[in-house]
Inverse folding.
């Protein structure tokens, strides 16, 4: 990780606002960091723009790889050229959970429209690519506590297969303050069927952090937040088995392992 003071000085000189790079882990649910010559890169199979950063005279594409990606060669379009990168295989463990409220596992017909609208609202943020928001990729944990459920687990709810775990769960008591993981702009606040009280923060170039199951929300749409600003408090709203923070990180509309943004400080 490059010292903040050095980067701050660089920023003064070049007006860049880039704080280091996340970890390179090219697996499903991970990140590929690919050296590129030009600014502007596209993930060809997903037709999505990807983040680009410049470090020490070199440009990099920072590519979020979906959990559903096949291992093997994938392609980026960089200017007029194609640049390949290789995704390595990774196996994630299974997790079997019992949800008492069966409606949260098998929603009623009347819930489906609400769920679809909420998904569209979140997808609009996940697919956004704002170059006017300064890019921050050096994150801190939003709360301190044990990880009760890691990223990527293959999930079975009441023994029915469901989508893999798209974030990590931090087990802390209801009411504990949740801090923004990095500076950004509040892009969504809402009360959602599965995620409960939820906040999404935009950190620039398609990098979004998401905080779910909150007991209360202390910020509003469009608020500018800094790393230590409080977004709200831990709760157990939505589909939960107890109070915890579900924290997700999305890059080019792909939920990736949040640990890759924590640097050497919190990655154990
Ligand atoms: Zn979770």
């Amino acid at each position: 990780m490059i010292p903040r003071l050095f980067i701050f000085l660089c920023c003064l000189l070049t007006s860049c606002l880039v704080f280091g790079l996340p970890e390179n882990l090219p697996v499903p649910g991970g990140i590929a960091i690919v050296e590129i010559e030009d600014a502007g890169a596209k993930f060809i199979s997903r037709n999505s723009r990807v983040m680009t950063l410049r470090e020490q005279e070199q440009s990099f594409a920072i590519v979020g790889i979906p959990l559903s990606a096949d291992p093997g060669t994938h392609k980026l379009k960089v200017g007029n050229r194609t640049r390949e990168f290789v995704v390595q295989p990774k196996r994630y463990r299974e997790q079997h959970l019992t949800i008492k409220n069966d409606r949260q596992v098998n929603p009623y017909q009347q819930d489906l429209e609400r769920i679809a609208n909420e998904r569209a609202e979140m997808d609009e943020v996940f697919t956004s690519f704002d170059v006017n928001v300064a890019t921050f990729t050096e994150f801190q944990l939003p709360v301190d506590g044990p990880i009760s459920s890691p990223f990527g687990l293959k999930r079975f709810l009441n023994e029915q297969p469901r989508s893999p775990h798209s974030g990590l769960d931090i087990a802390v008591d209801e009411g504990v303050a949740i801090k923004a993981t990095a500076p950004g702009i509040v892009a969504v606040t809402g009360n959602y069927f599965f995620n409960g009280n939820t906040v999404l923060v935009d950190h620039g170039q398609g990098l979004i952090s998401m905080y779910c199951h909150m007991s209360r929300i202390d910020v509003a749409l469009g608020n500018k937040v800094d790393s230590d600003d409080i977004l709200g408090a831990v709760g157990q709203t939505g589909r939960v088995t107890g109070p915890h923070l579900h924290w997700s990180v999305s890059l080019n509309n792909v939920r990736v392992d949040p640990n890759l943004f924590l640097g050497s400080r919190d990655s154990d």
